[in-house]
């Protein structure tokens, strides 16, 4: 089924004119022409009827900048110095064999992902072409890393994140660089340790904040790595023309939409 992503109506003069339903109707028409009758999509709004409701958690990488530009606030009874110290990360990844994904890794990453994702109620069904397109590192778009066992030279773990910069209104030339957790699979390293390395490399690359949804096994690292649940930061997942008997938990979802 198609994943509907990046639905967007230009914010200047075109919003609230019911153009979104026109776009959606045209998408549905084109999908039906291919004899496909289901789809998956997300929204920050509540529509009838979510299959699951996920929450974004954010982990500050550059707290001073985030607080200075008003993107985040100081926690109660915290000073800037204590906050900077709390969120400080090592300078380099700690897992032996941790490195950036390369084209030669596509088959191993595809196998890792397929073995991992088959346990979820609704999940991506990646093949090698999908992995190459969506997960091979692409500057300013997607960042993927893996762990190669120093003993066996097998790829044992994989993590990835994509990037979206935010412009801060009212403060010219200020962007907040946001990384979003994408697909992460572990077979040897613990997920919190792997994600700590993902935080370290994202900080090195100049990201200011790292977001993760509470999908798949992400709950196992959110608190330990001091992610904060956003107020009102929900993402609702929907299936088109497919009814589930009951709503799923976010942890039963093996799918991340941008
Ligand atoms: C989402 C967006 C395209 C909606 O357009 P809009 O101009 O605000 O709204 P419109 O007047 O065109 O349409 C409103 C209708 O579309 C529906 N709608 C809005 N977002 C929707 C979505 N993601 N999926 C399905 N329907 C959606 C609304 O429920 C409403 O229908 P209703 O009155 O029957 O409830 C627009 O707000 C936008 O570009 N936002 C920024 C990008 C974004 O957040 N995209 C969502 C993907 S996560």
From TrEMBL:
<dbReference type="Pfam" id="PF01233">
    <property type="entry name" value="NMT"/>
</dbReference>
<comment type="similarity">
    <text>Belongs to the NMT family.</text>
</comment>
<dbReference type="InterPro" id="IPR022678">
    <property type="entry name" value="NMT_CS"/>
</dbReference>
<keyword id="KW-0012">Acyltransferase</keyword>
<comment type="function">
    <text>Adds a myristoyl group to the N-terminal glycine residue of certain cellular proteins.</text>
</comment>
<feature type="domain" description="Glycylpeptide N-tetradecanoyltransferase C-terminal">
    <location>
        <begin position="68"/>
        <end position="251"/>
    </location>
</feature>
<dbReference type="InterPro" id="IPR000903">
    <property type="entry name" value="NMT"/>
</dbReference>
<dbReference type="GO" id="GO:0004379">
    <property type="term" value="F:glycylpeptide N-tetradecanoyltransferase activity"/>
</dbReference>
<feature type="domain" description="Glycylpeptide N-tetradecanoyltransferase N-terminal">
    <location>
        <begin position="2"/>
        <end position="54"/>
    </location>
</feature>
<dbReference type="Pfam" id="PF02799">
    <property type="entry name" value="NMT_C"/>
</dbReference>
<dbReference type="InterPro" id="IPR022677">
    <property type="entry name" value="NMT_C"/>
</dbReference>
<dbReference type="InterPro" id="IPR022676">
    <property type="entry name" value="NMT_N"/>
</dbReference>
<keyword id="KW-0808">Transferase</keyword>
<protein>
    <recommendedName>
        <fullName>Glycylpeptide N-tetradecanoyltransferase</fullName>
        <ecNumber>2.3.1.97</ecNumber>
    </recommendedName>
</protein>
<dbReference type="GO" id="GO:0005737">
    <property type="term" value="C:cytoplasm"/>
</dbReference>
